[in-house]
Design goal:
The protein is mainly alpha-helical and 317 residues long. Helix content is 78%, strand content 0%. Helix 8 packs across helix 11, helix 11 packs antiparallel against helix 14 and helix 12 packs across helix 13.
């Protein structure tokens, strides 16, 4: 990488840090505006006003909002994420117990969706203009338009209720064998893969077609090289940048879709913990979970920017 590319990447990193700071302020102030009193939720409706006031003072809820935000942000920067209002346990401990399950679900979805999307996109690009290509693109467009909760509901009705092939809920506990493991994760992974595969396949096809229309590839075909060899040896390496960018952007969608999927399938991950914390008005847990999703989302967007810059031929020149 030359100096200009490194400077551009440094600017992207700085913009990411600034965006994260803005997100932290938005998250804190919005969670503070949730209806209801957190101290009242913890103590119950039978608590006396004096007890509620004492707990509000203990939790720091009687302080001005700006002071609470600065105290919370300082604690976050020093690794102190606060204490749960509901369980009185460190928030980092509660979230750390759920984080591996969410990463496992996201990892399995990535392992399934990325190779499948690349295969579909490559096949559609090689057969562009054919009935197969048009049918495949119409199918992917239809899948993208369908919301995740509808896909999950239909999948549960067909595969769990009617056919009894897989369980309707995914407990996330270690299964006894590989088959049980695959059955437990089948429906959540299938639901998440539907939209991811459709998005990545369309972007992969578009990136490969742009390379196939280039003069150098036409010259390669005129020399007698087979279309498959020309695409794999010449077009695909030059399309790595756009494809990697498409994969990074599509995978960032996981952190929104996983909230719906974990709630539907009762999966014990961070997303379902976030939903429970919102209903219980457990503000420290809500704030940390949202910040974790924001960090992962921004990291994937930053990775997409870096890959675009790194594989840009003008930048390399």
């Amino acid at each position: 990488m030359n100096r200009s590319m490194l400077l551009l990447i440094a600017r992207r990193c700085g913009a990411g840090v600034l965006t994260l700071l803005i997100v932290s302020a938005v998250v804190f102030f919005i969670t503070s505006l949730l209806p209801g009193d957190a101290a009242q939720m913890v103590l119950g409706q039978s608590a006396t006003p004096e007890t509620v006031a004492a707990l509000r003072q203990q939790l720091g809820l009687d302080q001005p909002l700006l002071m609470r935000y600065l105290h919370w942000l300082t604690g976050m920067l020093h690794g102190d994420f606060g204490t749960s209002f509901a369980s009185h346990l460190p928030v980092s401990q509660l979230v750390a117990q759920r984080l591996p399950a969410t990463f496992e679900l996201a990892g399995l979805t990535t392992l399934v969706s990325v190779p499948l999307a690349l295969l579909i996109g490559l096949t559609a690009a090689m057969k562009r203009g054919s009935r197969f290509d048009r049918g495949l693109m119409m199918a992917t467009l239809a899948v993208v338009a369908v919301p995740e909760f509808l896909v999950a509901t239909v999948a549960v009705i067909i595969f769990a209720v009617r056919l009894h092939w897989v369980p309707a809920m995914s407990p996330g506990t270690p299964p006894a064998d590989l088959l049980s493991y695959l059955r437990n994760y089948a429906l959540p992974v299938l639901t998440l893969c539907c939209v991811l595969v459709a998005q990545m396949a369309r972007m992969t096809r578009s990136a490969l077609i742009n390379q196939m229309d280039s003069p150098y590839l036409e010259m390669t075909l005129l020399k007698g090289v087979s279309p498959l060899r020309a695409i794999l040896r010449h077009a695909l390496p030059n399309a790595v940048g756009p494809i990697a960018n498409a994969i990074s952007l599509s995978l960032s969608y996981l952190f929104g879709g996983v909230i719906i999927i974990e709630s539907i399938f009762s999966y014990p991950g961070v997303a379902s913990q976030l939903v429970d914390a919102v209903s219980n008005r457990d503000l420290p847990v809500v704030q940390l979970c949202v910040m974790l999703f924001a960090v992962c989302y921004l990291l994937l967007l930053l990775l997409a920017d870096i890959l675009t810059i790194a594989f840009n031929p003008k930048g390399r020149g």
